[in-house]
Amino acid sequence: MEKRLMDIFLNETDTAHAKSFLIATQMGFGLYRKLGFEEVDICTMNAMPHGGNEVIKWICMMRVPKLLGEIE
Prior knowledge:
The chain is an alpha+beta fold. It is built from two helices and three strands.
């Protein structure tokens, strides 16, 4: 279901010639790469001072719109 929602969203952004931005976890990173997103930055937070037990990593990603009719 999630991929289908992303396909609808990306079709809309391609039609509007708009760049797409998102913040991904390491778990979702591979899916977003397959959908054409590129890593543009990494944000981290040390959760240990706040009761956590790890450094949390988020990946900032961007996708340039595809031209209509472009072959993948």
